[in-house]
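Entry 14. Structure prediction run on the chain below.
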Amino acid sequence: MKRLTTIGQLKDFAGQSVWIGCWLNGKRSSGKIQFLQLRDGTGYVQGVVVKSEIEETIWNSAKELTQESSLYVKGIVREEPRSQSGFELTVEDIEIIQIAQDYPITPKEHGVDFLMDRRHLWLRSPKQRAILVIRAEIIRSIQQFFDERNFTLVDPPILTPSSCEGTTNLFQTKYFDEDAYLTQSGQLYMEAAAMALGKVYSFGPTFRAEKSKTRRHLIEFWMIEPEMAFVDHEENLRVQEQFVSFVVQNVVKNCRKELETIGRDISKLENIVAPFPRITYDQAIDFLQENKHEIQWGEDFGAPHETAIAEKYDRPVFITHYPASFKAFYMKPDPNRPEVVLCADMIAPEGYGEIIGGSQRIDDPELLAERFAEHELSTEAYQWYLDLRKYGTVPHSGFGLGLERTVAWICGLEHVRETIPFPRLLYRLYP
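Output returned:
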């Protein structure tokens, strides 16, 4: 087997002859010179094949190559400032691995359904590759943020015994002789973990059986859910804004080439620095009514409302103190105004909607028992959750960030389907 270098490493081999394993992304010819656009997953580089400098068999091999053919290329690394990578290869040898026949995704425009049916191949395009690199950087930054702040990563179960929030939007399955459900959230289990470890976070898949086809919804997506013992509502908000700032600035620092590839306005991301603005639900309702939106106090916000509010700001905005009537049973009421809860949604700018929902949790055992009764929740299935308030209850808070919505916002994408390698959408389970 050849000793291979990657395109991403070429900067370390200027003036040297190296082998790379790659695919042909495209090519063009200018008489006695062929220009091969090569990719290997770490980047792109142009291979220049000069007929007068190589054997005829190598020239003919280059001519034979088709889009997405796989090959080994030997070449001398040359500095080339006009190249995205800053280098190009003067080709010395070519060994064809396979000639691809009739590759279906060509440089012409294709419809979304055509591309989604061929998602396994669409991933190879420069834009899709760049999105996945940015997604990976976001994941790395998320883990770095929490690990550096002494949070412990904990994995909640994916199979759960009940829908504790009383929703029917769950995927049901059989767990031997019992009914079970694919998780919508690991939060309740993370609260238990926080009582053991203090500060914890989970990072895993979640599932929503909502028959929604909006540009913001996936059936299967990834959630990051921190929980923190001895943390109140205000501190919870500070952690969230520091967290999002950290992630965005890491992407700006480490993925500038990829952001340029997808055409993202980087200046908008450079501005995402904590602290973030905050408004209450009451203030949001007043603003919407003043701007001719038909909404009353006690109603939840939809996408048009969130977009209208976000347009006032150049960074994410918190909307705090929602009515308890439509928020989750576990959210702690404001002691000074029990009809609202100590919660917040973080709304991303540029029309991307909610990316974080969080709250201080109820720590009073009697109040939590009342909420279970009001919401007709199964105390049998979740007695363990009530136990958390019986044995050493403390003030605690947490939040959940949807990874794919965050990727869509940071990348400036129109639809979340491009934020995950193989999206699961309403009516789409292939490939």
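DSSP finds 13 helices and 18 strands in the chain.
Filed with the rest of this week's runs.
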